[in-house]
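Handoff note, outgoing to incoming analyst
You'll be picking up this chain. Sequence as last confirmed:
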Amino acid sequence: MPLDNTLTAKNATPAQKEEHVHEVFESISEDYDRMNDVISFGMHRFWKRALIADITSHNCQRILDVASGTGDIATWIARENPQADIIASDFSAQMLKVAQRRIDQEGLTNVEVSLQNAMDMSFADDTFDASVVSFGLRNMPSYEQVLREMTRVVRPGGYVYCLDSSFPTNRVIRPFFKLYFKYLMPLMGRLFVDARAEYTWLYDSTEAFLTKKELADLMRSVGLVDISIRSHLFGSAARHRGRKPAE
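Most recent structure output, in case you need it:
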């Protein structure tokens, strides 16, 4: 079914957004990793490496990768820390098929996939040392509900991470960033994988997403403390980390 080109992240209801996002990621699952390299000029790898180094530095052994998609974060952590147990969760079965193929090809035994809706996950309270979402929160129907779930499943003293796109606050950089995301990125989607509508949506979801401060405030509102923010590439992406208070 063709995507509804009139739907945007700003005018969609939560139900419409969830359905639309599911259709987007089901359709681009096979090309997702390649296009990430294309549209970010490979920069996303540096940002993810820094994220994983932060997680590893806190000796997290049980890790939940929310909106894992093709499992690049989950498998990367699994390679870096063979002693850790990682779950790659996502609500797109097609994306998880790609993730499982990657796990099998690399022969990883410490990571498994789980079909989950991030808004209402089946994991018990206080299960993980850390939960992480990478370039996925902005596509969720309710940012707050997902952060509450990610906080719920983390043990007291554990960590919640979010790496996502963010519009730069620099007035010189911001217009160029918007030009690239709004016009050039959808064009690349059409030229490389015939998916202009899908990559137009990814621009919409970024534009509608929270500012870095708003996301930090939301993390505090769900009970996280010690919030830290690390910006990348003039603020075009940012890593947020919060800690669940120890009992």
